[in-house]
Specification:
There is one protein chain. The protein is of the alpha/beta class. The protein has two domains: 4-125, 3-Layer(aba) Sandwich (Rossmann fold), CATH 3.40.50; 130-229, Arc Repressor Mutant, subunit A (Orthogonal Bundle), CATH 1.10.10.10. The chain is 42% helix and 20% strand. It contains eight helices and eleven strands. The chain has helices at 12-24, 35-44, 61-69, 85-94, 106-125, 160-171, 179-186, 197-212; strands at 4-8, 28-32, 49-53, 76-80, 98-101, 134-137, 140-143, 148-151, 154-155, 219-222, 226-229. The protein has a five-stranded parallel beta sheet, sandwiched between helices. Strands 6-7-8-9 form a four-stranded antiparallel beta sheet, with helices on one face. Helix 1 crosses helix 5. The relative contact order is 0.11. Keywords: DNA-binding, Phosphoprotein, Transcription, Transcription regulation, Two-component regulatory system. One of its GO terms (cellular component) is cytosol. Pfam families: Response_reg, Trans_reg_C. The modification 4-aspartylphosphate is found at residue 53. InterPro entries: CheY-like_superfamily, OmpR/PhoB-type_DNA-bd, Sig_transdc_resp-reg_C-effctor, Sig_transdc_resp-reg_receiver, WalR-like, WH-like_DNA-bd_sf.
């Protein structure tokens, strides 16, 4: 299936560079140089992934990300010249799935795009034996075939990365996974000690689950070791 990718960046040269590399990989590309145009495209077209610059005039990338997350769980890859840990955490907490710092290697960006698309779509379409479709932990029901999660019968909207982490922990209840293990299994990349991605995504995942599970806590931190899921 042809994948459609939206590039949102007010720097035309960067947007064109990314477009060339994406088109060489066979993707259909849409471009927007501001947040409002990006949201209009999202409303009118099928978009499978968004590459979103943070620093734009008017509506910045963080605001665009929050608007998208109000309605859609489309994978979002943020790009920014801001390379501080706080900037990355802010981007991820806003709802982005991944964060790349400018200037970046276009080939690395394409690798991140492929990883997010594979996790969001290919895994969801994979054949899963019927008895392994679902996992239940207390009031939480995880359906791997449809990539959906419900708590007390209510749908919990998760990004592909959040679903991947939850599914990993739920498949091995009680087992403690280190941040390194989670990162390498979900992102399919080598773990770097300085990354905050796992911590931020775990925090966001917890907030969503506990909101729908009336405060019930199922993801536990084992300090100095990692994370585990159990009722």
């Amino acid at each position: 299936m042809d994948k459609h990718i939206l590039i949102v960046d007010d720097d035309d040269k960067i947007a064109q560079l990314i477009e060339i590399y994406l088109q060489n990989e066979g993707y259909t590309v849409y471009k927007a140089n501001n947040g409002l145009t990006a949201l209009d495209i999202m409303a009118e077209q099928t978009v499978h992934l968004v590459i979103l610059d943070i620093m734009m005039p008017g509506m910045d990338g963080l605001q665009v990300c929050m608007k998208i997350r109000e309605k859609q769980m489309t994978p979002i890859l943020m790009i920014s010249a801001k390379d501080g840990d706080l900037d990355k955490i802010t981007g991820l907490m806003t709802g982005a799935d991944d964060y790349v710092v400018k200037p970046f290697n276009p080939l690395e960006l394409i690798a991140r795009v492929k990883s997010l698309l594979r996790r969001a779509y290919f895994q969801a379409q994979a054949s899963v034996p019927a008895e392994e479709h679902t996992t239940r932990i207390g009031s939480l029901l995880i359906d791997k075939q449809t990539h959906t999660v419900t708590a007390n019968g209510r749908l919990v909207k998760l990004t592909p990365i959040e679903f991947g982490i939850l599914s990993l922990l739920a498949t091995h209840p009680g087992r403690v996974f280190s941040s390194e293990e989670i990162f390498e299994k979900i992102w399919k990349e080598k773990y770097f000690e300085s990354t905050n991605s796992v911590t931020v995504h775990i925090s966001r995942l917890r907030d969503k689950l506990e909101k729908e599970m009336e405060g019930e806590k199922i993801i536990h931190t084992i300090w100095g070791v990692g994370y585990k899921l159990e009722n």
